[in-house]
Amino acid sequence: MSINRHRLGIDGDGVTTLVAFHGCPLRCRYCLNPRCLGQGDSFREYTPAELYGATYMDELYFLATNGGVTFGGGEPGQHPQFISEFREICGDEWKINIETSLNVPRENIEQLLGVTDLFIIDIKDMNPAIYRTYTGKDNSKVMENLQLIADSGRQGDCLIRIPLIPDYNTDEDRVLSIKTLKSMGFSRFDLFDYIIRSHESE
Amino acid sequence: MARGKHTCKILKEIRRQIAEASGIELVTSECQHKGDCLGTCPKCEAEVRYLEDQLRRRSLAGKTIALAGISASMILMAGCSHHVNNTGTTKFEPIALSGYTIIERVVDYNAPPFDPDKIYEVADEKPVFPGGPEALKKFISENIQLPDSLPASSKVGRVVVRLIIDKNGKAHSPQVMRSKNKELDDEALRIISIMPNFEPAKLNGQNINYWYLLPFTFRYNNDRSK
């Protein structure tokens, strides 16, 4: 787990602290945070109480700006118990945001629904073939969890990120993804492009 | 403008708004640091602690404090300015952003030499309760004593206490940072007073005094906390 303080309107409202979990079930070709997939030497372990102690220093900013803690990764959807315990400690005034692929068991999302203010969903692409090619996994759990969220009436608490992924999908594919998501009641989308740079050039 | 400077400027404005909204005098000065920074520094952090202290005093004195939502619109603008390009879509740079930098220490541009009497807020190794975090939960749970006469609604809540774990591992000088009610506050303080010594925090291999944050969650169903 790693911590990045003072993020401003990037992942959730207001001032947020990003807490990145180690480990992810996907193997995206253009992973945004490949360090989360490595050995984890640069990450340290926290208990929920220790994490609270490490984030409490910014409570004033959280309360003033409607901010809080954003769990990313890696895949925070793999850690519903930790996040639930953290919610119990931090109370209801902090916002808890989850950056997730939703490619986790349904029961994980069921638990997270009770403690999460905003789901920032990295949907990749709704087309199963594109999804599998890009991530190496199928998106059946993603679809199931989207439906779970919709059935819970929580679409308004979701921001769905839909990337244009070079060599994997097109604008037409994104239009189809949005159409499907709108039919499920989702309405907040973040469209963006991946800009590919090689590690060697940095 | 460097990202750190941009962050610093916005956080400073948030602090100014918080102070203004609650009638707190806050004197700030222009940061003189040249080059990159993380958006905060010991001076910025000291201003936050000062505001917290002033807000706590005002709250205890029964004065009104205004906090929530006063800076939301400004933050929103700050976020957008970084990400929307001239085509109206958001550009995101995978890998190159490396947006998950580990920041576990506040940058101190003039780090003082090691001081054995200082109470530190960062350490290489934090204090450890004998047996670890689960043992700490168990200790608290087993030692909670609330009077039967206390109404059920008063037996539920969260109390956060800041205390010193000194270089010998002793817990002392607790301060209630988040209060629920007098009974729960007092019970949290009582439990701290009977705690066994911790394994002290370490910095550069040396035992140090350490500010430790301990949250208590009181539940009514079995009168136990974690």
Notes on the structure:
The complex is a heterodimer of chains A (202) and B (226). Chain A has helices spanning 48-55, 59-65, 80-90, 106-113, 128-135, 140-151, 171-183, and strands at residues 2-8, 15-20, 68-72, 95-100, 118-122, 158-164, 189-194. Chain A is of the alpha/beta class and 202 residues long. The longest helix of chain A is centred in the last third of the chain and has 13 residues, at 171-183. The radius of gyration of chain A is 17 Å and the shape is globular. Chain B has helices spanning 3-22, 42-60, 72-83, 133-143, 182-193; strands at residues 90-92, 119-120, 157-165, 171-178, 201-203, 206-218. In chain B, strands 2, 3, 4, 5 and 6 form a 5-stranded mixed β-sheet that branches. The chains are: A alpha/beta (202), B alpha+beta (226). The interface between A and B is large, with 54 and 56 residues.
- What profile does the largest beta sheet of chain B have? 5 strands, mixed
Number of helices of chain A: 7
Which structural class do you get from the secondary structure elements of chain B?
alpha+beta
Unreliable runs of chain A = none
Beta fraction of the residues of chain A?
15-25%
Mean pLDDT of chain B: 75
Radius of gyration of chain A from CA coordinates: 17 Å
Q: Compute the number of helices of chain B.
A: 5
Structural class, from secondary structure content of chain A? alpha/beta
Number of strands of chain A: 7
Question: Roughly how many Å is the radius of gyration of chain B?
Answer: 22 Å
Query: What overall geometry of chain A do the principal axes of the alpha carbons give?
Result: globular
C-alpha geometry of chain B = flat
User: What proportion of the residues of chain B form beta strands (DSSP E)?
Assistant: 15-25%
Assembly level: heterodimer
Helical amount of chain A:
25-40%
Distance between the termini of chain B: 45 Å
**Overall residue-averaged pLDDT value of chain A:** 88
